[in-house]
Amino acid sequence: MTDKYIKLEKIGEGTYGVVYRAKERKTSRVVAMKKMRLESFTGRISYTTIREISILRDASHKNIVRLLDTILQEKSLYLIFEYCDMDLKKYIDGAPFGLPVDLIKKFTYQLLCGIKYCHSRRILHRDLKPQNLLIGLDGNLKLADFGLARDFSNPLGVLTHEVVTLWYRPPELLLGARYYSTGVDMWSVGCIFAEMMSSYALFRGDSEIDQLFKIFGILGTPDEHLWPGIRQLPNFKIIFPIWRRYPLDQIFPWMSYDAISLLEKLLIYVPSQRIAAKMALRHTYFDDINFSRS
Q1: What is the pTM (predicted TM-score) of this model?
Q2: Given strand 141-143, what is the order of strands in its sheet?
Q3: Largest CB tally within 10 Å, which of 47, 137, 173, 183?
Q4: pLDDT digits (tens, 9 = 90+) for 104-116
Q5: Torsion angle of C-alpha atoms 5, 9, 11, 16, degrees rounded to 10
Q6: Where is ATP bound in this sequence (predicted)?
Q7: 5-82 and 85-286: same fold?
Q8: Is 127 a catalytic residue?
Q9: Least confident of 21-30, 71-80, 193-202, 230-239
Q10: How many CB atoms lie within 10 A of CB 40?
């Protein structure tokens, strides 16, 4: 590995391992080097890492981070990615009153382009959040961190509901659904879209039940009329408090009618009625975009 790359500095760390900024010796190209920890007892590569490598090796889209190389050395696995110097979370944190409206539109469009590509290839990301969306050196958004992603088939089999970071997790997963599809990613897109508007997560729960109540407090408590079949979900309780819907245009009065219209379609309770990425890209909100369509 040291014959091919030079470590420059550590830029991140998590349960998965450490990320470095590095340089390729042959070309002097700056890259991101993700040093993955192997499973402690077996010394093997984890299943989630194998899945991430498999998905990214086959992916080819300008709004998905590129996996350039993989190197297995001693007790570590190194994943080499194109270098992006910032993630969307840092971008949002640097704008305490929300991102400029033109930038919100650009990033949302590019996020949807990346998700459309994934869904068209039968891949669910299952962990969309600002920290997992990178901003490249060209200023464009790229999907990253596919550790929880998986292929899906039709009809979709039983899946774990313990995916998606809490603030971006859709209500069907919070209610214990084991059968789900692309709607889980679209809900997360809606949460990220809203967060770019105000620099504040729309639903900030500190537990699964609190997260549900944060959603109900804004979108209203769903019933069988609003969400047919909700009573059959494992975690649904008839004693849930009753909240009435709060209009989204009153939460984000500075956003256009079209922006609120798209947000409402992304945050629909019934997963099958949530707008798909392909249709979202055709929404009137994007009619006046002045950057290259994907």
Answers
A1: 0.91
A2: 86-87, 133-135, 141-143
A3: 173
A4: 999 999 999 999 9
A5: 60
A6: 34
A7: no
A8: yes
A9: 71-80
A10: 7
Topology of domain 85-286 in CATH is Transferase(Phosphotransferase); domain 1 (1.10.510)
Domain 5-82: CATH architecture, name and number where available: 2-Layer Sandwich (3.30)
Q: What is the pLDDT of residues 232-257, one digit of tens each?
A: 999 999 999 999 999 999 999 999 99
Q: Is residue 25 a contact partner of residue 6, using CB atoms and an 8 Å limit?
A: yes
Domain boundaries, the chain: 5-82, 85-286
Which residue out of 87, 127, 145, 185 is catalytically annotated?
A: 127
Question: 7 among the known binding-site residues?
Answer: no
* SS3 of residue 18 by DSSP: strand
Model confidence at 150, pLDDT cuts 50, 70, 90, reads confident
Q: Is the confidence at residue 192, as pLDDT, over 50?
A: yes
Is the bond into 171 cis (omega within 30 degrees of 0)? no
Encode 3-29: b = buried (16+ Cβ within 10 Å), e = exposed.
eebeeeeeeeeeebbbbbbbbbeeeee
pLDDT digits (tens, 9 = 90+) for 257-280: 999 999 999 999 999 999 999 999
Assess contact for 109 and 285: CB atoms under 8 A. no
Residue 85 CB partners (closer than 8 Å, separation 6+): 135, 137
